[in-house]
Each structure stands twice: as structure tokens, then as C-alpha cells.
Write a structure and sequence with these properties.
The structure is a homodimer. By secondary structure, the first copy, chain A, is an alpha/beta fold. In chain A, 24% of the residues lie in helices and 27% in strands. In chain A, strand 9 (175-180), helix 4 and strand 10 form a beta-alpha-beta unit.
Chain lengths: 338, 338
């Protein structure tokens, strides 16, 4: 199989904050012939996620930044359409760091996993059965270590990671409180994701009061996707021995330099609490365990998800900025026509 | 045995920041007769420690604040001089929350422990073999969990807790870097307490640079007694999977409201690091284990200590403020004449 051309989204300029359309360009590139040990993936879904802001940032991060002129790094899911690799066969579905492009030539190293849940939509491999679900699973269960009866507070509670955190916490026997922006998202928290309480941080000019009402015995676990003033409010309500899982910092536009906020040491000291940063890539050796359980919960209807699917690669350049504008209700994906 | 009067230091007014002499008054009180189940302790040493600022603060804390007109809460060590209690005999040495006063009537509940290390000075039961040593022991070993080869950074490194942390870390096979204020204290770090490197934060207008030179592979464990700008500098140098043990916040004059500082979430996230608050009183059931080991290290000459002993109860009112002025070299104690 041979393609004439490959449409790619490349990084054109390095953003200082949230990447905007002007930081990307869409180009047509030739597809090279496959060498031995390579295979060709036709991407069906491209992922869009908050962490991609960090991937293009020059500031210290957990991986090298995407270079100017390079295809934008992203997870994608698709089908192997040609192969000269012994372990990947035509027709297999794969998910990995295949980038914002129609076709990806891979030697297997950028493949996160083969998608085995063929009874479920392939798009889930980029969301609730992908890094989002796995992030929720390990961040909550391994770092937060909830006990039944704990009060678990989640920020960006209706988002792709947050909604999974809330539902897994409920499966673990916890009381769940979601923080989200706007009435649509808090409604989603309560009606779709089963949170026991939901707080609209945009409406709550008294976030502290709303939190203390929702968490009368304090917050045992805070799964933090935002940092910023939302976290400041939650930290004032920690229970003794509370655990703050730092998964993302979506509310902070730039970390160069770090913005100022109220110091946290006294809260942590008085409450013997902990804050721990967490990156899902450290758990790669255990992804299959998590995805097996997550898929079972999805099939049982205990783990629900929302998707925000945009059609066509032209949607990519504004897609990350749109996340930070809070315009999506569910995991944002770009679907490519076959 | 009967005493005519008991000299006490009482809290006269509630400070908003660091307690000053005007917040205390020295009074003569009558000593009541002992009831059944009580005994009388003649205090030989009164303790002075940074945490006492929190004990008189109205802000949220881990214990109720000392009431106005009450004897200032403090640890003290002394001898049982009269007893109507079956478990405490005349002549026994005890350490506990006996307060800033010459004599304390106790029913045993305010006694932390009987002092069994009678071959060593009684004053040590308030320092390296008391809460300071035990704080260093559990904070470093249980919360920080050092591995041989780790780089351990300690703030207030020449202080009563910090000097023990540095030496226990060295016993545990770590590389130790002390941060202290002024050339006398850094000299003490290197010569008395065996730190591999010492940084004078008052001289280092480039604390970041001094830290990066002293910690070329980053900071694995930061034992934080100060919070504030010193901690901000250390957090910029964390190694992957670093642990910050929050033991005290000596550099912060008031937490009502919390002062602003650079947000920490990104450091913790990128480095998968943790910050954990720690209060030694949670480890009461294991004090004897720690003190047995600490006393053995003292006898072996592997755990050294400095004391700053002032004579007479009149030294009490200014003693906490003096700690925060950084004027003491070693554990501050008030010795009472017998």
C-alpha cells in the first residue's frame, strides 16, 4: 500500500503560554517507503489534551519539547495498513505517540499498546481506556490510595481525567465532590458521572463556603487537575492525613516564572497532609492491568464517558486553545476521514 | 515536701506573630497540696523551641492555643520531689509538658516519658534525646525514607532538630548539605555536625547557584524547617522522586493570612516529587525506640549536639523571640537553680 501524500500539523513557533492556531501549520508531506522493521498506521483519531501545552513549552518538563518544524506530538489511534515489522500485522489497531498527521511510519517504539478491546469504540483507546483513564486509575488508586468513606474532591471534574477519577473513587466506596466550571458541567458531574456533590467554581464567589458544605468532615483526597485558586480553596479544607494528587495545572497559563500563590506549608504541616506529583508515563509497565479493569467497568456501565469529536485535521491548530477556553464537554478528539 | 510559692511564666496577651517579652508575665503562685494520684516535679530545665510560636497563635494549629492567663506551655525536665501517685516515685527524672514554671503538679498525663538515660545529662532529654532528636529521627527516617547515596538538604541545619537530621542522614549513608544563617553556623555544620557542604543563605545572594554546586545530582530529600525563600530555592533543585519533609516554618512570621510565594505544583508534577507535613506527636507510641537508638549514637560520639543554656526563669519571656532572631547556637534551654 502506498499513499501519495500525508497531511501533517507541524509546530511553527514556540508559544510562551497556551498554544494558539498561529503556532501550527498544516503541510503536505511525502510518505516515505517502509524500511524493514517499519509499518504504516492510518490514524483514525487524534488526541487533544491539556498536557500538550507542556510538550511545546520551553520550560522544564518531563520530556524534551517538540522541535520547531516537527509534527506535533500527540497520541493517536489507528489501523496498521502496511507492515514490514514482524510484530505488527495489517489490520491490527494500535494507539501511540503517532502525532497530529494522517499517516504515521512507526518502528514500534512510539506505540503505547495494541488495542484489544475491539468490542468497544476505537476512540475510547484515547480516552477512558487510554491515557486519561489510566491517569485517573493510577493517580487516584496508587498515589491517593482512597479508603471507603473518604471524601474525594476532583477539579476539572467533568473532564476526561476528572470524570474517570470521580467514578473510580465511587467504585472504591468514596464520597465524591466535583469542581467544574459552569452549570452544564456541574449538571454533567451529577447526572452522568454520579458525583455526590458538584461545585461550579465560576458561580461560587464563596468557594470556601461551598467546599465546607460539600465536605463537612474535610477533604481526604484532592485530585488536582488545575492548581491555582481552586486548589488554594481546597487546601484550606484538608482533613488530617489528607493527600493531594497533583496531576495537572490547567488553570495556570505559564510557569515561566511560577505564579505566586498562598504558601502551602502550614496546611500540610498542621494536617500532616501530603502533596505528590504524578506522571502516568511512570506506570507504563502496568497499563494493561488498568485498562483491563477500566474496560470491564465501561462494559458494566459503571464507568461512563463523554467525547467531543471534531472532524478533520483542520480542527487541530485551535483544539488545545479550545480546551483551555473550557469549550468541550468530554474528551476532545479529532476524527480523520477514512 | 512543701514549697511556699511557685514562680510561673504566664501568657498575658496573644501575639499575632512571634511572641515577644510583653506577651508574658512572671508571677508568684501558691503551690496546692497534692491530691491522691498527683505528684510534684521540680523543673531543672525548661525548653524553648520554635513550635511554641504556634502554641500561642490563634490561627489553626494541631493543638488548642494556650489561654490568656495560663502558664506558658512548654516541655521541661525535672525530678519528682513528692508523690501521691503509684507509678511516679520521689527521685525519678521525668520529661513532659510541665510548663514554664519552677514546680509542676502532675497526674502523669502531661508526662512524655521517664528519663532512663541517667548516664547522660538530664538536659539532653529536652534536646537530642527529646522531641528535637525524635523529630529528626521520625521526620527523616519515616517520612523522608532516605536511601544510602541520597543527597539530603536540611534548613536550620545547625539547629537542634536540623543538626540531628544531618547526622542521622549521614549515619544512613547520605550526602548531607546544610543551610544555615551566618558563618558561625555554617562552620558549626561542617566542623561539629559533619555536613558534606554548608550554605550560608545570608551570604548567598545566589542561593540557587550555591545549591546547584552543592547538589549536582539534585536534592533527593529536603528536610524543611523554614519554608519561605530558602525552600523556594531548594524546590527548584529537586531530583526525580524527591521528598520534601515539612517539619517547621521558622522563616514565616505569620500565617494569618498565608504569605504568598511561588506556586509549587509544577515542580512536584514534573519531578514526581512529594511534600509531606509531619508532626512528631503522631509518633508518641514509638518514642522509646527512637530515643534508645539516639542515646546509643550519642554515647558512640556519632550524634553530637550543642546547647544554649540560659540561667533563671527571667530569661523565658524573650527566649522564643531570641530563637527567631537566630541568636542561639544550639538547643535553647532555661536552667533553674536548685
Amino acid at each position: 500500500m502506498r499513499q501519495k501524500a500525508n497531511t501533517q500539523v507541524r509546530l511553527k513557533a514556540r508559544p510562551t503560554g497556551i498554544p494558539q492556531p498561529e503556532h501550527f501549520e498544516i503541510v503536505q508531506a511525502a510518505l516515505p517507503d517502509l524500511r524493514t522493521g517499519q509499518f504504516l498506521v492510518r490514524n483514525e483519531y487524534l488526541s487533544v489534551e491539556p498536557a500538550m501545552r507542556g510538550w511545546v513549552s520551553a520550560a522544564a518538563n518531563y520530556s524534551d519539547p517538540v522541535g520547531i518544524g516537527e509534527v506535533m506530538r500527540s497520541f493517536a489511534a489507528g489501523e496498521v495498513v502496511a507492515s514490514r515489522h514482524p510484530k505488527f500485522a495489517e489490520g491490527e489497531k494500535v494507539m501511540g505517540l503517532l502525532g497530529w498527521q494522517e499517516y504515521a511510519v512507526s518502528d514500534g517504539r512510539d506505540i503505547t499498546r495494541k488495542v484489544k478491546e475491539t468490542d468497544l469504540p476505537l476512540s475510547l483507546s484515547l480516552g477512558v481506556l487510554g491515557l486519561n483513564g489510566v491517569t485517573a486509575y493510577f493517580g487516584l488508586l496508587d498515589v491517593g490510595r482512597p479508603r471507603p468513606g473518604d471524601t474525594v474532591v476532583v477539579s476539572t471534574a467533568a473532564g476526561a481525567v476528572g470524570s474517570a477519577v470521580g467514578q473510580i473513587a465511587k467504585i472504591a466506596g468514596c464520597r465524591t465532590v466535583g469542581i467544574a466550571g459552569g452549570p452544564l458541567k456541574t449538571k454533567l458531574c451529577l447526572e452522568a458521572f454520579g458525583y455526590h456533590a458538584a461545585i461550579d467554581y465560576k458561580a461560587a464567589d464563596q468557594l470556601d463556603h461551598a467546599l465546607s458544605v460539600a465536605c463537612p468532615a474535610g477533604v481526604d483526597i484532592y485530585f488536582d487537575n488545575t492548581a491555582g485558586p481552586i486548589s488554594d480553596g481546597v487546601l484550606r479544607q484538608l482533613a488530617v492525613k489528607a493527600c493531594v494528587v497533583i496531576c495537572g495545572t490547567a488553570s495556570v497559563a505559564s510557569w515561566a516564572p511560577a505564579p505566586m500563590g498562598p504558601r502551602v506549608e502550614r496546611h500540610l504541616l498542621v494536617k500532616r497532609a501530603s502533596m505528590a506529583g504524578f506522571i502516568v508515563f511512570d506506570y507504563q509497565h502496568r497499563y494493561e492491568q488498568a485498562i483491563t479493569r477500566l474496560a470491564a467497568w465501561v462494559r458494566q456501565g459503571r464507568l461512563r464517558y463523554r467525547e467531543d469529536i471534531q472532524d478533520g485535521i483542520a480542527a487541530c491548530p485551535d483544539a488545545i486553545a479550545g480546551l483551555y477556553r473550557g469549550e468541550n464537554l468530554g474528551k476532545r478528539l479529532i476524527r480523520l476521514p477514512s
